[in-house]
Design goal:
globular; 20 strands; binds zinc ion; alpha+beta; nine-stranded antiparallel beta sheet
């Protein structure tokens, strides 16, 4: 592979700006390479719901109290005493939710503080990417406006087990609380289960189970093995040695160039309209809510709830669209014999709108993470190319033409007069940055919808629609059908 890249580099000739691509940084990855987390919807009975609320309430209280103590220490003395605070709250809470669960919540808070300190250190050393938000100390488990605690329960890996009824449902048994709660959702992976997190997200309970794929449980916890679908992550091998270069955006979710000359545009039309629809929904609820501030608290709460619902729904629906797009792209790249994928990662994501900045950066990170995980299933490597200006630069002359980005997503080269799709122009630049010269032979366009990814280009292999079965035309006077 190295040889091939070298050969391509020499094609670039005097490109002085060739820079190395790097592995996906840990900050953008799931914690452990071999771990996949499954998310299951819990359907507790009324009684169980009450019980879960109570346990979660105590866990959240514990989290908030220790976090308050630690934040206070941090702001007053610039350092915190992890061990002492741990001991103090462990003693206080072990009788309330049991020692194991107390430990789990405290451990998670420890982890949160440790990663905050790690980020601070990176920042001090100047190693933190500008596109990553400035580190803030761990927050509280609560809704800032209603002041209610956000509910969460953390269960140690050997204090629960999963009992499957069939492929889509079963029970999760919480040993310490003798609760057997029903779940729905498909478990895609088999392997050793990790720490279970139960979260309450807008009137719904969800269980997050990390699974170390293909790993057997320890001897003292034989029930800690979740039997799902696959017990290996990589199920396919790359078919060839091609490379692909991706520019991610909102108009084109993915603009891809490959070394074989294929250009793929995965359009985010539905994503974009959903995004703006929910945005206005959120804004309406928010402004009604705020104008009710002086009316009754009940009315105000109702609109606040509507706002929270919009927040939840929008992220659920975007999540589904994005995941669909990622799966589709991984499969397409595999079919095109791609082995290495280079993803352009901006130093700075456009900050024209302060509010959207955080949302976009959050999705950008999420997408990178998902892409990395799904490509792994095909044995495809994802590499990051840190870049700036790839969308402003001309992929033909390699200079920045002013005002070259015109409406409808075109980039116009003022020297050659050529018009290029603006996002493919950016993807071509990403390739150039890492030493490849690519050019478009054909462009294929797709659009992500809630029913899958569909081709926009006519007459493409039938992913789009099922073959239509037409009845033979009835012709009058010619007798019956054959
Ligand atoms: Zn040009």
């Amino acid at each position: 592979m190295a040889g091939q890249q070298k050969q391509r580099m020499s094609l670039v000739g005097g490109n002085p700006t060739v820079m190395p691509a790097m592995e996906v940084p840990n900050l953008l990855k799931s914690k452990k390479e071999s771990v996949r987390t499954v998310r299951l919807r819990l359907l507790p009975t009324k009684q169980q719901d009450k019980r879960l609320r109570k346990i979660a309430g105590t866990c959240s209280k514990l989290w908030n109290q220790i976090n308050y103590a630690r934040r206070k220490m941090f702001f007053e003395e610039k350092r915190i005493n992890i061990e002492e605070t741990y001991k103090e709250f462990y003693e206080r809470y072990k009788k309330l939710v049991g020692s194991v669960t107390t430990q789990q919540v405290l451990n998670k808070n420890n982890e949160a503080w440790n990663s905050f300190f790690k980020l601070l250190k990176l920042k001090k050393e100047g190693k933190l990417l500008p596109s990553i938000k400035k580190p803030t100390p761990p927050g509280y488990w609560k809704d800032k406006i209603l002041g209610k605690r956000i509910r969460g329960i953390i269960i140690r890996s050997d204090r629960y087990y999963v009992e499957q009824v069939n492929n889509g449902e079963g029970y999760i048994i919480l040993k310490d609380f003798s609760v057997k709660v029903k779940y729905v959702g498909r478990i895609k992976w088999s392997g050793r289960q990790g720490r279970l997190e139960i979260k309450y997200e807008f009137n719904r309970w969800f269980a997050y189970i990390p699974i170390e794929v293909g790993v057997m449980p320890s001897k003292n916890n034989p029930r800690g093995y979740v039997r799902g679908g696959c017990d290996i992550i990589q199920r396919k091998k790359p078919r060839g040695e091609e490379a692909a270069f991706i520019d991610m955006g909102l108009n084109n979710l993915f603009a891809v160039m490959t070394t074989c000359g294929d250009a793929i545009l995965v359009k985010g039309g539905v994503v974009k309209s959903e995004y703006y629809w929910w945005k206005s929904e959120k804004r309406n609820a928010q402004s009604t809510r705020d104008s009710m501030r002086n009316d009754s608290l009940e009315v105000w709460r109702r609109f606040h709830r509507r706002y929270l619902r919009a927040l939840f729904k929008s992220s659920e629906r975007l999540r589904h669209l994005y995941r669909t797009a990622v799966r589709f792209l991984a499969k397409e790249l595999h079919e095109r014999s791609v082995k290495n994928v280079y993803l352009g990662y901006p130093y700075m994501i456009t900050q024209d709108n302060g509010n959207e900045y955080n949302t976009n950066i959050w999705w950008f990170r999420k997408l990178t993470q998902w892409l990395h995980d799904v490509l792994k299933e095909y044995g495809i490597e994802l590499l990051i190319v840190f870049e700036d200006n790839t969308s402003r630069e001309c992929s033909i002359c390699h200079v920045i033409h002013e005002n070259a980005r015109v409406h409808r997503g075109l980039y116009v080269c003022s020297v050659s007069g050529k018009k290029i799709n603006a996002d493919l122009n950016a993807a071509t630049n990403i390739a150039y940055r890492v030493g490849y010269v690519v050019s478009v032979k054909k462009i294929e366009s797709f659009v992500v919808t809630h029913n899958g990814v569909k081709p926009v280009t006519p007459l493409r292999r039938g992913i789009a629609q099922d073959p239509a079965v037409k009845p033979p035309p009835f012709r009058a006077g010619r007798g019956s059908y054959p």
